[in-house]
Amino acid sequence: MLKVKEVIDEIDLNHCKDTIMGGPLLRGVSGGERKRVCIGQELLTNPTLLLVDEATTGLDSTTARKLVMNLCELAKAGRTVVMTIHQPSTKLFHMFQKILLLSDGNGMYFGKGDYVLDYFSGIGYAPFVAMNPTDFLLDLANGIYSGNSEEDTGSTKQELVSAFESNLAYQVKTELQNSMVLFHDDSSKHEMFDHYFTTWPCLVAF
Fold first, then answer.
1. How far is residue 59's CA from residue 76's CA, in Å, rounded to a whole number?
2. Which part of the chain is the ABC transporter family G domain (predicted)?
3. Which residue from 69, 59, 70 is spatially nearest to 30, judged by alpha carbons?
């Protein structure tokens, strides 16, 4: 029971801890609370790696943001959280600390989410209208920019990949090398090697 109380506190469900789950004919917890209960069930086993598949699907943007913030707090506490998000809102997008945009296995962007639109604008690919950054990036990853049905998507992809190789590839390689150095450091005193930490190379292998 102490562990259950700890998990309830961890995912901010104290306000509805005595509420039934509910169903089609009986009102219970909200959609966001239901998603957090599912995550809480996984946390009861004290996992080192938490896999969360499309936790925000079907939620409004405010509830989705609150759920992601809960997961961020779990990650800051030392857990490794791997999460997929389908069509994130603009608010969620700007919570991403690092973005790696791939197209057919080739890199197109790597860096902070806040800088991504400035980067593409700097190489001549600015969005024509105000839009969700994720929609814009998805179009670019598919080689779509002008919206013209006769657009050469292959050429657009190649230009973006070439720009990545010239401007950002070195940064990616440097960060990977730094991660490898950390991974091979056998110092037991390093604060990052606690009970929950999973290294970048291990995540790639996974």
1. 24
2. 86-187
3. 59
Rounded Cα–Cα distance for residues 181 and 172 (Å):
14
3-state helix, strand, coil in the chain (%, to 5): 50, 10, 40
Instruction: Tell me the CATH class for 2-93.
Output: alpha beta
pLDDT (tens digit per residue) in 159-195? 999 999 998 888 778 877 776 665 555 555 455 445 4
CB 138 within 8 Å of CB 88: no
Strand partners, 83: 52
- Stated length of the chain: 206
pLDDT in tens, 113-160: 888 999 999 999 998 888 899 999 999 999 988 766 667 888 999 999
CA distances from 87 to 54, 103, 135, 159, 203 (A): 9, 17, 8, 25, 23
pLDDT tens digits, 45-68: 888 888 888 888 877 888 788 888
The ranges assigned to domains in the chain are 2-93, 170-206
Q: Distance between the two ends of the chain, CA-based, in angstroms? A: 33
